[in-house]
Write a structure and sequence with these properties.
Helices cover 36% and strands 23% of the residues. It has helices at 52-59, 82-87, 105-114, 120-124, 133-142, 158-170, 188-205, 216-222, 240-245, 247-254, and strands at residues 14-23, 26-36, 41-45, 67-72, 75-76, 90-93, 176-180, 208-212, 225-230, 233-238.
């Protein structure tokens, strides 16, 4: 994995500059700019249709932005493929689960990181676990999945599969992870556990996170910096207490 290497004091970790994505007359993302520093956790909120996921997809190469630029570790990555970005240390989760239901939990984690283990011939000659078994076991322990590690992922509860899905995103030790609604469909009793896990991961791996989420309490307790999007634009951003108190945010997002 290429990653960022040693960053200069003036280098920006992730910088999104005036990104736009239009579908005909519909401006799904309309001039969004923001920056994420090393080790920072940034939350992105907004009502349905505000352009959050389109913004993610524009950053991560799923779609090509109509205009604007995205820089990562001082390099322009606009329009790069998801694989190219993954090799540079950028990971993501999706709204829908991306686990392999018939594989064990442990094998799901190994598969998630195998792509980043050297060349194809080297991977073909590698041991069955591609040398990733120890790291997979560490992640299984970290996420509290040891008791289900050998079970097929598809046999587990939705909440457990969500944890597996997130663990898979972190297996390659990415420098930046974009998480799209990690709380969606998760039992409320697991939300606090998930937030604590992300905070611990941030401290342990030192990466930066950008998190889209509708659960306001989750975002406000997790993210020191919050961005609110409405109709494809940034309506407000800043510390959670500032964004929560913004009248325009209350009217647009909370309906007050």
């Amino acid at each position: 994995m290429e990653g960022c290497g040693e960053m200069t004091p003036t280098a920006r970790f992730l910088e999104v500059k005036d990104v736009r994505k239009a579908y005909g007359a519909i401006k799904a993302v309309d001039g969004v700019s923001f920056a994420v520093g090393p080790g920072e956790i940034v939350g992105v909120i907004g009502p349905n249709g505000s352009g959050k996921t389109t913004l993610f997809n524009s950053i991560l190469g799923q779609i090509k932005p109509s205009s604007g630029n995205v820089d990562f570790c001082g390099e322009e990555i606009t329009g790069m493929s998801p694989l190219q970005l993954s090799r540079r240390g950028v990971g993501r989760t999706f709204q829908t689960l991306q686990v392999f239901g018939k594989l064990s939990v442990r094998d799901n984690l190994i598969v998630a990181a195998q792509e980043f283990q050297g060349t194809m011939p080297a991977r073909l000659l590698a041991p069955p676990d591609a040398g990733l078994g120890q790291h997979a076991d560490e992640m299984i322990e970290f996420f509290g999945l040891r008791h289900v590690a050998q079970l097929p992922a598809g046999s587990l509860s939705y909440g457990q599969q969500k944890l597996i899905d997130i663990a898979m995103a972190f297996m390659p030790k990415p420098r930046l992870v974009l998480l799209d609604e990690p709380c969606a469909g998760v039992n409320p009793s697991l939300v606090d556990q998930l937030r604590a896990l992300l905070i611990d991961l941030n401290k342990a791996q030192g990466g930066s996170f950008v998190v889209i989420e509708h659960n306001m309490d989750f975002i406000m307790k997790l993210c020191p910096h919050v961005i609110c999007m409405v109709e494809g634009k940034v309506l407000a951003e800043g510390p959670p207490e500032t964004v929560q108190a913004n009248r325009q945010v209350l009217e647009a997002y909370l309906g007050n």
